[in-house]
Design goal:
Length: about 100
């Protein structure tokens, strides 16, 4: 396990091998959590809300197109179930933190 040195202003440099293994690039955001005698650092992705919303509606349109011969109520029910599943998994992730 490589050692890192704290320099002025509390900065550290993550070794290249670790950055490469985690896909961390300059400007990326990292989440730092403090434990009893340790800290953990996780790479975080920032999602643009408008871009995510556009992608979501694109996926809904694709789902509707692929199910065009289905009853519209069945399509809406499938979409609602998918949304609930995402919210449920997001809720579990939030509770684990």
């Amino acid at each position: 396990m490589p050692l890192v040195k704290v320099i002025r202003h509390g900065q550290i440099t993550l070794p290249k091998g670790i950055r490469d293994a985690l896909g961390i690039k300059e400007g990326d955001l990292l989440e730092v959590k403090l434990g009893k005698a340790e800290m953990t650092i996780k790479a975080k992705a920032v999602v643009d809300r408008e871009q995510a919303k556009d992608k979501f509606f694109q996926m809904v349109d694709e789902m509707r197109a692929s199910m065009k011969d289905e009853d519209p109520e069945v399509i809406e029910r499938e979409i609602e179930e998918a949304i609930r599943a995402v919210r449920k998994s997001k809720s579990k992730t939030t509770k684990q933190k």
